Amino acid sequence: MVYYKPSTDLAYQSMKDIHYVVPTGRFIRNIHRWAAELMVITVILHMARVFYTGSYKKPREFNWVIGLGLFVLTLALSFTGYLLPWDQLAYWAITIGANIAGSPTEFTDAIGVTRIFNLGAFQKEILLGASEVGQEALIRFYVLHVMILPILLFLGVSMHIWRVRKDGGLSRSESVTTAAGKGVGASHVLPQPPSAAPTKTYGLMCVVKGRTPATNLNMDETVPSWPYLLRAELLVLMAVTFISLALAFFFDAPLKEMANAAVPENPAKAPWYFLGLQEMVSYSAFIGGVVIPAVAMMGLALIPYLDREKSGVGVWFTNAAGRIVAWRSLVFGVIAAVAVVAVPVNFGWLRNWFPKIPQLWIIFINPGMILTALYALWSIYELKRSGSTRMAAIALFTCFLIGFVILTTVGTVFRGPNWDFYWWPSQWPVH
Amino acid sequence: MTLPDIKLIDHRVKVWLLVCGVLTIAALVASAVRENLLTDWRLHQRQYLGILSDKATEDQGRDLYKRFDIRLRQAVVPELGVIDRCLSCHTGIDDPRMTDVAQPYKVHPGELLSIHPPERFGCTICHRGQGAAVTFAEAKAEDSYWDYPLLPKELTEASCGLCHTPSELEGRDGDQLATGARLFEDKGCRGCHQLGGRGGSNGPALDNEGLKIKHQLPMARVEGPHTVPQWLIEHFRDPQEVVVGSQMKTPGLNHDEIIALTSFMLAQQQRDLPRSYLSPAFHAALSLKDRPSDLGGERLYNRFCGTCHGSGTIGRYDKFYKKFMPAIRSASFLAVADSNYIANTIKDGRPGTLMPGWSAETGGLADDEIARIVAYLQEGSNEAPPATPPVSPASLETGQAERGRSLYAQLCVGCHAPGGIGDLAPALANPSFQKYASAELIYRTIAFGRKNTAMPAFRSPSAGGLDDRAIIDLVAYLRSLGSSRGTPMAHSLTPETAGSRP
Fold first, then answer.
1. Which of A2, B90, B323, B438 places its Cα 20 to 30 Å from the Cα of B123?
2. What is the residue-averaged pLDDT of chain A?
3. Residues 6 or more apart in contact with residue B15 via CB below 8 angstroms
4. CB distance A24–B35 less than 8 Å?
5. Which fold, B156-266?
6. pTM for the full model?
7. What is the rounded end-to-end Cα distance, in angstroms, of chain B?
8. Residues of A with CB below 8 A from B132's CB?
9. Residue among A87, A232, A263 minimizing CB distance to B216
């Protein structure tokens, strides 16, 4: 931060200086880069764990929502940091991202109100401070990245952890509580420890601080945070630190040519965690880039308020039936996602079949939308079958999670120039 | 379910904490050593220190040895936007004793450094490459993400052209650049390419060719390293081999000429270098409003016209463009085309065909230069013009276009294509032709043909034996092509569809 200069003229050269001559600058930048990507991964894993152990249930509903907010903040931090090197990778990734923000224009165009109400252009301009990625975007991403978002993240994480305590510590299985009461604990910022096998995890989750009013447990039923919990957390901290250091030692953070608006990257790809989105955006910018993510985030936020079943808190998949539902949904989710990618790749889509179709049809009936609909139907099917909202939630969450993984993989590995499908980057045509 | 034993868990946590802690410290120490002590340039300077001590035989050498400290060395020239760290490893470039040592310690060859000290010029302004880098691979930047990799040794001269004109380098170190500049003129490159506002428009303008980066050129069929210089070299060897469907003719150069021309191309950079860096001649050339235009008609013709029209005395079939190029120096052409017609045709060209416009605004030729070209064309053929009886202008206006159309369909369409859009033979519907060609010119051309070209004389019995009436009908039809709206014109410019003509 003290060597970096947030100006389009100087930023790239300062990256080069950090890389080549600032003492250990390269190493620190590598750590920063890889840790940021690890953070996105661990946040997703953490969310999955909290979900599958039912730790979002009462009284922790609100902490789940806070957690989602932190997830968005994490992505925002990562995204804003992506632009700062001012290289080709950054420039075109942010251009893609900004175009996603501008995608409602596609919809307003189709219904013919763009001239009156151009939401897309408005959003894009809010994001970039101009109509194109340039100095305005750079300085605002910089301020967001080093000041505003970190402050928000700091407040958010503090609240998140405080709520863990307040909501009764880490969540744990009812089967080990006594009659005393709420016997529950919250999820915690513990990233998935390597020892995520259920028994071990229960062990950690059972660590509940005594004397907290919320637990209502006897002293002999709880374990003090210090030293047991904090030491365990320290272990995770150390392990993650070591992994980041090792990655930073062996792999350099990417830095391409200086940003050049005249030479577009082909394919221009967003940061990897947005490539699932970009895949859907390739079907329809508005639906894939705005509507589906918004619906997904909303759905996630509502989970604790929709699924009010009390049983199974702190147990992976609630029970054996839940495990089966999760597996079945995984299989369904994979098949549906692969099919939805494979059909347009092999057979084209509406535009190829009915060249004269109105754009609105293309916008609304696209593979991303169909995938979402399939997942929703699957969840309803599971709901009918089991009569349990928890099972339906497990089905939906599993589907979305695996859908995210598959679309992200497709976007990362299998998409080449012009967003055409290739089995491997080595098959890309040399331009 | 029972509570696991917290003490046992805690014990395991402690052990793993110790392991992770030790590993983390090890990783930190390893990286600190690597980043601070084992950088390439440090190792090289240590090596160089040894060389200095070996060579410290007299006072000055001992002094140099004593004063040499190991530190990052860089040339910073803000005016040129240069921060070059090459000197961190190439420590001996200014030490004349460093002739018998290995790279990177060798002295810089030639006298160039004494005229161009690195403190004022840096390294990358001439050599290109990534000056900020401190490893060799990244400094050469052939496979790195860097727009301008190190120039191959044989092409470094290209950079002289940033501040010097090729002509002032003739016979000196920049001879190669001068050769390239000469080839550019002599090979008729300007027939299709503009440089400094002068040249045809069929090919791309080359004013900034030296600043192109590899992503702007199709590299798929380049065999050597995928760099711009290599692209240029292979492209000059065989344009179609590198760019499928390229319209450029193979210039037919030997290896040295290709290198010279590549060098000249790489020198074409529109950069705003500080005036204080430019040589007086370069400075003068920049501020010259009018280009030197004392070239004779013949040389102008060879530079700008010869690529397509050849000698101009016979109607040559160009195998490359698959069409007949008008014989603009032939007697039968000159017999019907007056100076105005020729000059106007040169100025406007034939839009949509291979023939670009050459006026000061389009092709950069001054009016008097065009006049010289016209004069050269007219003196061209020493053959006597064919005897052609006069036609009265009035009778030319009486033709019937409908009758002419059917004649056209029988006799002309094979070469001139339906609607006069041109195919093997020139496009007669072209607005520029319609604008400048008089009815008499058309009449005479049909009636008496163009000798030494594929255009027969249609009045002669062997080629149809048309009478005056029929020819006048044809003239009327051809005239109607100019006025009819939506004439199929201006096909995309490919060798198959483009035509050119008076």
1. A2
2. 81
3. none
4. yes
5. Cytochrome Bc1 Complex; Chain D, domain 2 (1.10.760)
6. 0.78
7. 100
8. 13, 16-17, 19-21
9. A263
